[in-house]
Design brief:
single chain, about 550 residues, mainly alpha, five-stranded parallel beta sheet, 5 strands, globular
Length: about 550
C-alpha cells in the first residue's frame, strides 16, 4: 500500500515539484489557526470564518484558499468557487491552489472509504491528502486526527469513539511518541462535543414556538402533540437547499426527482425496490445519510447529471430523508420534483424501529461474526439482516419496561414533530405534486406515480409496470401483528414491552393534531377521510 501511494505522489510531484511545505507557519496568526483547522478536517469551523476581515491580512490569499476548500467539502460549490477566485486575485501561489485542490479530491476518497467501513484505506487517503500540501509534517499523526474529525462530520460517532480508543492505546504503548496530554485532551474534548451533538440529534428536543404573550406554549406533562419543529418558511436560507438544482429540475422534463420524506420503517426501501423493478436502468437512488459522493443538497443537485439514456425516455431519481433533526428545507415541488411523505401506524413504527435499533446496540456482538451494522442501515440487505438477527438470538436482550420507555420518549417526540411539519404545514403551504402515503398504500402509490409517466416509458418498462400492477399485492405482506419480530426471542422481548409501546402509540394518535397517526392506524378500516393532498401523481 505504501509503495503504491508513493508512486501516486511521485506522478503529482513531477507536475508540481515539492521542496517545502506550501502552507506558511506563523504562530498565533489567523493563517496558522486556519491551517490547524485544515489539518484536522474541521470544515465547519473553518468555513465559519468571516472572510470580510481578510482584506488587510498579509496571508489573505492562503486563508481564502483554505476556507474555499472547507466550503467545497461542505458542498457549497458557489462559495468555494468565489473564494478560490478571490484568492487568485490576491496573488495565491498556483502551486498552493493546485495541491489544495488535489488534496481535497484525495480527502473525498478517504471519506468514501469511511462510509464503506474501510478504515485503513481511509487513513492512507488522509495521509496522502495532507502530504500533498505539507510533505514535512507528521503526516500519520495528523491523518489520525483528520480521520477522527471526518467520522464526526459523517455522523459515524461510534466509529469515532472506537478510533480514538485505538489511537489512545497505541500512544500509551509508544514510548517514543511526541503526542502530548494537551493534544489528547483537545481530541477528547472535540469527541465529547460530537457525542453530545449526536445525542441531541437523536433526542430531537424540539423547541415550541412562542405564543402571543411571549411564553412558550406547553401541553400537559409528557405531552407529545405540542412538539413543533421550527419550519423554515424561506428555503433559500437553509444550507441544505439548492436553488440551482430546484430551478433546473423545474425547467426540464428528462429527469424527475422524487423526494421520499419518510418516518422510519414506513416503506421507503420497498418503494425504492419497486421503482427499480419497473424503471430498471432509468432509475437511481440516493440514501443521503451515508451515500458516497452525496451532494448533501435538497433537491438533489446530482439530478442535474442524470440525463435520460434514450431521447424521449424518463429518468426517475429517488432521494431519501427521515429528517431526523427536522431541518430539511420546505421547498415547493413541481412536475419534475415530486414528494412522497411516508407515514405509518405509530405502534408498528416504534416496534419495528426498536427491533432495528437492537443491531446498533449490539454492534460488538455482530462484529464478532464479521457483520458491520453500518452496512445494515445503509442498504437493508435482507440476507444480512436475517443473519444479524439470528446472531442476536444468542445473547440476552434488554427489554425492561424502564429501558424501553427511555428509548421510546425521544422517538415519539420526533414522530410528532415530523407529522406536524410534513403533513400540516407542507400540505397547507405548498400544494400539489406531493402525497402523504400510509404504509399499506405504498404499492398502489408507486404504481400510480410511475403510471402517470406511462407515455414516456419504454416498452419493457410498460410491461414491467403492468406486471407489477397485476401482482403488487403479492410481494408486499405487511406485518399484521406489531409484536411479531424477526426471531422468536425478539418477539418475546416485544411482548414483554407491549404496555410501553401501546401507551406511546395511543398517546401519539390522541395528541397528534394533524390526525396523521389516527389515519395511518385506520387505513384498512377506511373509517377516516383521505389525506388533504391527492394531486401528487399528476404527470
Amino acid at each position: 500500500m505504501k509503495k503504491k501511494r508513493d508512486k501516486t505522489h511521485q506522478s503529482v510531484r513531477d507536475v508540481i515539484p515539492v521542496e517545502v511545505d506550501l502552507l506558511p507557519m506563523s504562530d498565533e496568526s489567523l493563517v496558522e489557526r486556519c491551517r490547524t483547522r485544515w489539518q484536522q478536517g474541521a470544515w465547519h469551523e473553518l468555513a465559519a470564518l468571516d472572510t470580510k476581515r481578510l482584506e488587510q491580512d498579509r496571508d489573505r490569499a492562503v486563508i481564502a484558499l483554505l476556507v474555499s476548500v472547507a466550503h467545497q467539502h461542505l458542498g457549497r460549490e458557489d462559495m468555494a468557487r468565489d473564494l478560490a477566485q478571490k484568492a487568485v486575485s490576491w496573488g495565491a501561489d498556483p502551486r498552493q491552489a493546485a495541491r489544495l485542490l488535489l488534496s481535497a479530491v484525495t480527502n473525498s476518497l478517504g471519506r468514501m472509504s469511511l462510509c464503506l467501513a474501510e478504515g485503513e484505506r481511509a487513513r492512507e487517503h488522509f495521509e496522502s491528502a495532507i502530504e500533498l500540501v505539507e510533505p514535512r509534517a507528521d503526516v500519520r499523526r495528523l491523518a489520525q486526527t483528520r480521520q477522527l474529525h471526518e467520522m464526526g462530520n459523517l455522523g459515524l460517532i461510534a466509529e469515532a469513539v472506537a478510533a480514538f480508543d485505538e489511537s489512545l492505546q497505541a500512544q500509551m504503548k509508544d514510548t517514543a511518541t511526541t503526542v502530548t496530554i494537551e493534544d489528547l485532551s483537545r481530541e477528547l474534548a472535540w469527541l465529547r462535543e460530537r457525542v453530545e451533538e449526536s445525542a441531541r440529534s437523536q433526542t430531537v428536543s424540539l423547541s415550541l414556538p412562542p405564543s402571543e404573550g411571549g411564553e412558550a406554549r406547553r401541553g400537559n406533562t409528557g405531552s407529545m402533540a405540542g412538539a413543533a419543529p421550527a419550519i423554515a418558511l424561506h428555503p433559500d436560507r437553509n444550507p441544505r437547499y439548492s436553488a440551482d438544482a430546484d430551478r433546473w429540475l423545474k425547467a426540464q422534463s428528462d429527469v424527475v426527482v422524487v423526494e421520499l420524506k419518510s418516518m422510519p420503517r414506513a416503506g421507503l426501501h420497498y418503494a425504492e425496490r419497486a421503482v427499480a423493478t419497473v424503471m430498471g436502468e432509468d432509475s437511481s437512488f440516493c440514501e443521503w445519510y451515508q451515500e458516497p459522493g452525496c451532494c448533501r443538497f435538497m433537491p438533489c443537485a446530482h439530478g442535474c447529471f442524470m440525463p435520460a439514456p434514450t431521447e424521449g425516455r424518463l429518468h426517475l431519481r429517488l432521494t431519501k430523508s427521515h429528517d431526523f433533526d427536522l431541518a430539511d428545507p420546505c421547498h415547493a415541488p413541481g412536475p419534475s420534483l415530486r414528494r412522497l411523505i411516508l407515514v405509518r401506524d405509530p405502534l408498528f413504527i416504534l416496534t419495528s424501529w426498536w427491533t432495528l435499533d437492537l443491531l446498533a446496540r449490539h454492534r460488538k456482538v455482530l462484529e464478532e461474526v464479521g457483520i458491520n451494522p453500518v452496512s445494515l442501515f445503509y442498504r437493508h440487505n435482507r440476507s444480512l439482516l436475517k443473519a444479524a438477527y439470528q446472531r442476536l438470538d444468542q445473547v440476552a436482550l434488554d427489554c425492561a419496561p424502564q429501558s424501553v420507555e427511555r428509548w421510546i420518549a425521544p422517538k415519539a417526540r420526533y414522530l410528532a414533530g415530523f407529522a406536524r411539519k410534513w403533513v400540516t404545514d407542507t400540505n397547507r403551504r405548498i400544494g400539489p405534486f406531493q402525497e402523504v402515503v400510509a404504509y399499506d398504500e405504498v404499492p398502489d402509490r408507486v404504481a400510480s406515480l410511475i403510471g402517470g409517466f406511462e407515455a414516456r416509458l419504454g416498452k419493457g418498462q410498460r410491461q414491467r409496470l403492468e406486471a407489477y400492477g397485476a401482482a403488487r399485492s403479492a410481494p408486499f405482506r405487511p406485518r399484521q401483528d406489531a409484536f411479531v419480530g424477526p426471531t422468536q426471542q425478539i418477539s418475546a422481548a416485544l411482548e414483554v414491552a407491549r404496555p410501553a409501546f401501546e401507551a406511546a402509540a395511543e398517546r401519539l394518535c390522541v395528541e397528534d393534531v394533524t390526525g396523521t397517526f389516527a389515519r395511518a392506524s385506520a387505513t384498512r378500516r377506511q373509517s377516516l377521510p383521505p389525506y388533504p393532498t391527492t394531486q401528487g401523481s399528476q404527470a
